Each structure stands twice: as structure tokens, then as C-alpha cells.
């Protein structure tokens, strides 16, 4: 699968200034005014996201499996509003929703760890999976086919993955989970083929090879045991009562022993797979439940900041006679490619729309015009003073 062009801009504040075309030739006053204006954009966004955080946390508290708060109305647990807010938040943080067929493809194939899993999708009332940052990583493994020599292989991964779900009242519902809550999970560096391993109710499917490793020794053990017992019976045939005892009790006991031994071997192999999976995911879990919301709010705020700073600057620098959104898009992508060597799909239209709502740029006949830094700064100061 080819890597998709991402909307996500993975740079810090100082690096962001390097992504502004011709910023280095601005006068000292312009540089100071722009930096101060960018700080005002940051403060304004922080105010907006703080209000959003309060709203989202209020909605999520009765649905949070980790909450320790005593709520006035614990029976009211409507999840649709939480999923709607989460959808908007993930869009701002530049995640994309993964289609159902990607999950189904993952289930049909072995994981990057060589495991095959089965998922009971009937457990879910709602299930939403979002990813960001398609990339190819190089992993290593040892295979008996190569005499356990270490070899490298490419793995397609999501740099970040969010799973949001609510379970049904189901007879197979895991004991430690409840249908009363909305569960949120945040992971990093998850292979495309491993998406389903992160879902509750997922079970390891034994491969034919591993089943053979268990069944064949068990069957051969039973056969050898019977042969040995028959030989013993012949040797002690003169003792009729002892032979009768062996005939009717020892053979069944031997069969039961090898069945039990095969079952224990099956459980050990299955637990080995599960432990292997747990070890690999231990360091890939970033956050759970309310912690996921806080992380997403932080990421979304700074994504908006980066996009709005770049968009405002381009309109301010090149838009005295008006500039189209497609031109802003092109200039931003070209500069980002030059500075950070990543092919970013810059969301100019969204950023320009947000700047227009703040009244720091103007739209006339599908052309964008700058408001002077002085007037734009004054407008943002007014917004902040009203808080």
C-alpha cells in the first residue's frame, strides 16, 4: 500500500518559522510584529481549546471507565455526543478514519508478529478506528527456514492510532469490561496488519504448524503407550487378574494422560503467543480514555496553530492584490517540502476559514487579502480581553 500524503505537520514552533517563505528577509520590526502576532494566535487558540476541553470532559465523565467522580445523574450515558465531538477533534488533529475493509483485511492476514487472530465484531455497539502517519519501518525477525538467522523486512505502520468503542451487553463480553462506558485507546507505531490485535475479545488462532506440533506428539505418545502396555500385558499374562486390570484401567489412563498433556501444550503455546503480543504492545500504548482526549486536544490545538500561522503569513506576504486558496496551498507545500523534506498535504482552505472567523484576513470574490498586523493584533486582543 503506498504511503498517503499526510495533513499532519510534525514541527515545533521555532522550526515553523523556517517554513515561512522569505521570513529571513523581513525587517527587524516586521519579524518582531509577526512573532508577537503569532503569540496572540496561540493564546486565542488556547482559549478556544480550553473551552472545548471543558465541554468534552463534561460529556465524557459519565462514560469514562477510569472516572472516580460521583455524578448527579449516573444513569444518563448517551455516547453519540462523545463520538461526534471526538470525530471533530480527530479531524483537527489530522487523523483519518480507517474504512471497515482495512480492519477486515487485517483480520484475514497474519500480523507482523506472525500471529493469526480472530475478532468477534458482534461485541461492539460502536467501533471507530483512526490513523495518522503512514510510514514504512524496518523490523527484524528470526525464522527456522533461515536457520534462525536474523533478517530484515519492511512493515507498513501507522505512526499514531486511535481506537474508540462501546461494547454491547453480550454473553462473550470480557469480564473486565462493561457496556456502560466508551473506551478510548491511543497507540504508536502499529503495523497495518496488527489493527485487530488491539481490540477486546481478540483471540489467537493457532497455525496448522503449531497445531501439528501439539497433536502429532500427543497421538504418537498414545500409540507408543498402547504398544508398551500390550507388551506388558503379554509378559504378565499368567497373572490373569493383573492383565484384566491393565486392560481395563491402564490403557484408558494412558490415553487420558496424553490428552491432558496435549491440552497443556496447547495452552502453553497459546499463552506464548499472547505474551509475545503483549510484550510488543507494552511500549506502544500512549494513553487511555480521558488521557486520550487531553492528548488529542493538545495535538489539535498545535496543528491549528501551525496551519493558521503559515496561511496568515502567506496572505500577508503575497496577498496585497489578493491570493487564492490554491496558491496558499501550493506555496505552503513547496516550502514545507524544502525545509522538512516531507510531502505534506496542506489544508489551506480550513486554516483560511478559521482566520477569517477571527477577522484577521478578508475574503473578496474567492481571493484572500490580509488585514494589517496592527489591526489583526488589536482584534485578537479584544477577543482575549472578553474571556
List keywords for this structure.
387 residues; alpha+beta; Arc Repressor Mutant, subunit A; 3 domains; 5-stranded antiparallel β-sheet; 10 helices
What is the H/E order?
Answer: HHHEHEEEEEHHEHHHEEH
Tally the structural domains. Answer: 3
At CATH's second level, what is the architecture of the largest domain? Orthogonal Bundle
User: What is the approximate shape?
Assistant: globular
Low-confidence stretches: none
| Beta-strand content estimate | 15-25%
Count of DSSP strands: 9
Molecular structure report:
There is one protein chain. It contains ten helices and nine strands. By secondary structure, the protein is α+β, with helices and mostly antiparallel strands. It has three domains: 131 residues, Arc Repressor Mutant, subunit A (Orthogonal Bundle); 111 residues, no CATH class; 66 residues. A five-stranded antiparallel β-sheet has the order 1-3-4-5-7. It has a two-stranded antiparallel sheet with strand order 2-6. Helix 7 crosses helix 9. The radius of gyration is 31 Å and the shape is globular. The two termini are 47 Å apart. The model has no long low-confidence stretch (mean pLDDT 81).
Topology at a glance:
Elements: H1 13-18, H2 28-60, H3 80-92, E1 96-97, H4 100-108, E2 116-118, E3 124-143, E4 149-167, E5 182-191, E6 203-205, H5 208-235, H6 240-282, E7 285-288, H7 290-318, H8 325-340, H9 348-357, E8 361-364, E9 367-370, H10 373-385
Helix pairs in contact: 2-7, 2-10, 3-7, 5-6, 7-8, 7-9
Write a concise synopsis of the structure shown.
The chain is α+β, with helices and mostly antiparallel strands and 387 residues long. The chain has ten helices and nine strands.
Amino acid at each position: 500500500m503506498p504511503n498517503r500524503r499526510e495533513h499532519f505537520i510534525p514541527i515545533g514552533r521555532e522550526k515553523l518559522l523556517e517554513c515561512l517563505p522569505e521570513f529571513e528577509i523581513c525587517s527587524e520590526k516586521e519579524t518582531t510584529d509577526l512573532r508577537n502576532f503569532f503569540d496572540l494566535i496561540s493564546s486565542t487558540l488556547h482559549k478556544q481549546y480550553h473551552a472545548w476541553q471543558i465541554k468534552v470532559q463534561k460529556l465524557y465523565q459519565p462514560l469514562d471507565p477510569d472516572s472516580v467522580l460521583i455524578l448527579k445523574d449516573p444513569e444518563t450515558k448517551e455516547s453519540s455526543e462523545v463520538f461526534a465531538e471526538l470525530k471533530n477533534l480527530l479531524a483537527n488533529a489530522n487523523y483519518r478514519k480507517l474504512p471497515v475493509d482495512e480492519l477486515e483485511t487485517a483480520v484475514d492476514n497474519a500480523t507482523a508478529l506472525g500471529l493469526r487472530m480472530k475478532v468477534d465484531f458482534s461485541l461492539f455497539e460502536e467501533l471507530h478506528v483512526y490513523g495518522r502517519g503512514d510510514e514504512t519501518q524496518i523490523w527484524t525477525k528470526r525464522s527456522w527456514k533461515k536457520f534462525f538467522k536474523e533478517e530484515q523486512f519492511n512493515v507498513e505502520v501507522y505512526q499514531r492510532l486511535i481506537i474508540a468503542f462501546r461494547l454491547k451487553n453480550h454473553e462473550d463480553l470480557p469480564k473486565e469490561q462493561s457496556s456502560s462506558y466508551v473506551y478510548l485507546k491511543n497507540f504508536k507505531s502499529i503495523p497495518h496488519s496488527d489493527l485487530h490485535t488491539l481490540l477486546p475479545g481478540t483471540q489467537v488462532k493457532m497455525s496448522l504448524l503449531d497445531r501439528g506440533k501439539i497433536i502429532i506428539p500427543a497421538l504418537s505418545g498414545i500409540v507408543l503407550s498402547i504398544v508398551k502396555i500390550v507388551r506388558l500385558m503379554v509378559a504378565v499374562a499368567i497373572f490373569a487378574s493383573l492383565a484384566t486390570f491393565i486392560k481395563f484401567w491402564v490403557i484408558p489412563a494412558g490415553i487420558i494422560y496424553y490428552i491432558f498433556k496435549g491440552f497443556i501444550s496447547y495452552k502453553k503455546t497459546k499463552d506464548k503467543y499472547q505474551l509475545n503480543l503483549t510484550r510488543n504492545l507494552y511500549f506502544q500504548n500512549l494513553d487511555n480514555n480521558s488521557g486520550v482526549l487531553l492528548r488529542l486536544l493538545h495535538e489539535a490545538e498545535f496543528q491549528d496553530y501551525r496551519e493558521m500561522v503559515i496561511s496568515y503569513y502567506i496572505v500577508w506576504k503575497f496577498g496585497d492584490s489578493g491570493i487564492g486558496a490554491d496558491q496558499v496551498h501550493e506555496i505552503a507545500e513547496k516550502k514545507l517540502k524544502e525545509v522538512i523534506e516531507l510531502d505534506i498535504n496542506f489544508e489551506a482552505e480550513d486554516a483560511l476559514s478559521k482566520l477569517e472567523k477571527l477577522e484577521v484576513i478578508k475574503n473578496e470574490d474567492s481571493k484572500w487579502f490580509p488585514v494589517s498586523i496592527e489591526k489583526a493584533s488589536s482584534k485578537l486582543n479584544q477577543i482575549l480581553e472578553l474571556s
